[in-house]
Design brief:
The protein is mainly α. It is built from 17 helices and no strands. The chain has helices at residues 2-24, 26-41, 43-47, 54-94, 103-108, 111-114, 121-128, 135-165, 167-175, 183-222, 227-237, 244-259, 261-286, 294-308, 310-337, 343-358, 366-388.
């Protein structure tokens, strides 16, 4: 009894120490987890290089390098243009002492009612102070945060390439820690998680990039003062479940109102149209999610947002999919594996139940007797039908995907 309590206490203390270590090194753990997710998304690019000639492999590697370099350059110039647009917008709003409303609205509203509406520079001065020079520290802080994000992105990219290059070695290492009879099942679960998460990240990344480009081009055509900034916001906001639409539409309308009512209406309607078109016709083709749990995703999003901020919100759908896969393969499939595979197995189980009933005191409860008679009758009626239509044995392919 004492040994049992000691074993439980050691287990509890070990769990607490592990959780404390994870929390203390949460930044490192975050980098490692994100790099693993990103490695799963680019795994198909590495498998393409297997089994081809050296010259073709070199060409593919050069193509990958050019694509990555192009994306990094595009992100750099997009952020640089966004900072410039934000600075110009802030400077213009700070000097705007009148509302830019259409003539028909100004003539339809009384002058006394317009006095209740603050001028655009009033709320800005309430936030950043009376001097527009105070926006410079904010922009400097944004630039510093961008530098930190670029450094983190480089670390994650290097780690992802390293995980892919050493995939076989690390798989053998962690599988060797498991019992031999559990390794095949663990490998199958790992491959399922890797495939599903990689497919989701690739699809969501392409979808977000498409939304950002469409929004930026459309805002530039409509004359928005910050098309690159709003396009960048659209790219990042579309990665967030549930709240992505609001984070795209609200800043678009607000920045449009700071310029003119016509631009606010046009850009707002255009944003809604783009999001609807992408959700109906493009998203189902890019994101074929077989493990989607909205309630679990929402709970994880709230919990991870409190700890990791925006990064936690973005990775919540991927973590939700991992939880659903583990639940299905470890809990549901294990319960289903104990089910009878044919009628002979079912009859043997019924015989065991009848033998257990015989050991009970007589008379037997009528409910038990009638239930067993009914089950036996149903099996006898189903046996001819099953013998004519021999179904394959029960396998995990018959399980629901969600």
């Amino acid at each position: 009894m004492i040994k049992k309590f000691v074993r439980i206490g050691v287990g509890v203390l070990t769990t607490i120490l592990v959780l404390m270590a994870v929390w203390y090194f949460r930044i490192v753990v975050t980098y490692v987890l994100i790099s693993l997710l990103f490695a799963a998304s680019i795994r198909s690019l590495f498998t393409r290089l297997v089994g081809i000639r050296l010259f073709s492999r070199i060409l593919w590697i050069l193509a990958y390098s050019l694509v990555v370099l192009g994306l990094l350059i595009a992100v750099y110039f997009a952020v640089q243009a966004s900072v410039a647009e934000l600075s110009n917008l802030t400077q213009g709003v700070s000097m705007q002492d009148q509302l830019t409303l259409p003539v028909w609205i100004q003539t339809s509203l009384k002058k006394t009612r317009l006095t209740w509406v603050p001028f655009p520079n009033v709320p800005l001065q309430m936030v950043i102070g009376p001097y527009e020079e105070q926006i410079l520290p904010v922009l400097l802080d944004v630039a510093q945060n961008f530098g930190g994000m670029m450094t983190a992105g480089a670390i994650i990219l290097i780690l992802s390439i390293y995980w892919n290059a050493s995939k076989v070695h690390y798989e053998r290492l962690w599988l060797s820690l498991l019992p031999s009879d559990k390794r095949k099942r663990a490998r199958d679960i790992w491959e399922t998680i890797e495939y599903e998460i990689g497919d989701y990240i690739r699809g969501q990344g392409l979808l977000s990039l498409l939304i950002g480009v469409c929004l930026g081009i459309g805002f530039w055509i409509f004359g928005s003062p910050s098309p690159v900034f709003l396009g960048l916001i659209g790219t990042l906001a579309s990665l967030m479940p549930f709240i992505g639409w609001l984070l795209i539409i609200i800043p678009t309308v607000i920045i449009g109102l700071l310029t003119s009512l016509e631009i606010a209406i046009l850009t707002g309607i255009y944003s809604i149209v783009v999001l609807i078109v992408v959700s109906i016709w493009i998203k189902p083709k890019l994101l074929k999610r077989r493990w989607d749990g909205p309630i679990l995703t929402l709970i994880l999003m709230i919990a991870l947002a409190d700890v990791f901020g925006i990064v936690g919100i973005i990775v919540a759908p991927a973590i939700s999919a991992i939880c659903l896969i583990l639940w299905n393969r470890l809990i549901v499939h294990r319960a289903a594996s104990d089910a009878p595979t044919d009628l002979s197995d079912l009859k043997k189980r019924i015989e065991k139940i009848n033998q257990s009933i015989e050991t009970l005191e007589k008379p037997h409860p009528p409910l038990i007797v009638h239930s067993m008679e009914r089950i036996s009758k149903l099996i006898n009626e189903a046996e001819p039908i099953i013998s004519k239509n021999q179904h394959p044995e029960f396998s995990e392919t018959h399980l629901p995907s969600n």
